[in-house]
Specification:
It is built from five helices and six strands. Helix 2 crosses helix 3 and helix 3 packs across helix 5. The N and C termini lie far apart (about 35 Å).
């Protein structure tokens, strides 16, 4: 999402909405953060939803980066070791590595982007739980319940 031009000047790519850099502890939201397809008629809501998506990456981890489980206030050196992500993968139908999803008629990835891997699924599910809970609940009752338990402290 962040690139350099020929003169070495930094700029935000036009199609990347945001990124979480775990190695730097940095969340970047670009100008495109309000121009997504989740809420095309509400730029402000889309911006907040993008921020929520990226914050979810910061909490649970992304790729091989560290993760945090707010339920026990512990950091894990790799998100694959994070109990939060292990439980999410199981609830959502992902294999252990989070790269193969088995959907059912009752429970599907809530967005096309969520279907790419478990990390994006977690972030998209957290975003939808806060900004379009009806969509999350209708597409994936299991993800909705997981997020409900997580954010309501159950």
């Amino acid at each position: 999402g962040i690139s350099h031009d020929d003169d070495g000047n930094c700029y935000a790519e036009e199609d990347t909405m945001g990124e979480w850099f775990s190695d730097k502890g940095t969340l970047v939201l670009t100008d495109a953060a309000g121009n997504g397809t989740d809420f095309p008629d509400d730029e402000s809501k889309q911006f907040r939803a993008t921020a929520t998506h990226e914050i979810a990456h910061a909490i649970a981890g992304h790729g091989s980066g560290p993760g945090f489980d707010p339920r026990d206030c512990k950091e894990y050196p790799n998100n694959e070791d994070n109990p939060l992500m292990k439980e999410f993968k199981k609830a959502a139908g992902w294999n252990e590595t989070g790269d193969t999803l088995v959907e059912t008629d009752e429970d599907k990835a809530p967005t096309d982007y969520a279907a790419t891997n478990a990390d994006e699924d977690f972030a998209e599910s957290a975003m939808l739980y806060h900004y379009d809970p009806d969509k999350l609940q209708s597409k994936s009752p299991a993800r909705y319940k997981f997020m409900q338990d997580l954010f309501n402290g159950s």
